[in-house]
Please model this.
Amino acid sequence: MIQVALPKGRLGEKVYDIFEQIGMGCPSIRENTRKLIFENEENGICFFWVKPSDVAIYVDRGAADIGVAGKDILLEYEPDVYELADLNIGKCRMCVAGKKGFRDDTSRTLRVATKFPHIASSYYEKVGREIDIIKLNGSIELAPILGLSDVIVDIVETGKTLLENNLEPFEEIVPISARLIANKVSYKFQNQKITEIADKINRYIQTKGE
Ligand code: PRP
Model:
């Protein structure tokens, strides 16, 4: 059995659709239940739903052989996993944003609110700017509005949240999308099956993109 950790929610539904399209589905997953684990013995595959930000933990620790996680999570937590495919879904950008017209006063330490302290620190280290990280867990956009921070480092998808709160993106740090990841030990010992799934997914993504 290949154990697959899927991110719960809208992205997870799209990810599961891909598995179904490549003939690795599990019909019982479509039943409207609160079950968390779904097995298809015929395909030798088992899916389970986890919080999107936890997928990489399951895969890193080997509780799942493979999984799908956002590049944001992979950059932030640097799990020790292999990245096998870019699924080309869940696309967004990691950006620096703030109040419209904000000017950075470089004589002061820049206060940066974010859910991604590692990504933010690495970025500002690279550009040589001294910062003070304010780690938040959600509604990051509130921070510059209420004067808690000067800027935010956050995910921008449609840009609507920024726009509707009189904020704007200043800089794109990195583009983000969903990635197929594999546990390193599983990749070694279940190589044939995992490679087959990754190849089928990569082919499916390529034909869809054409
Ligand atoms: C994310 C992100 C932004 C929003 C961006 O928040 O942190 O707030 O989506 O999307 P948009 O550009 O399409 O408006 P999420 O929904 O994950 O909620 P959060 O406030 O808990 O971070």
About this structure: Residues 138-141, 154-161 surround PRP (CB under 6 Å).
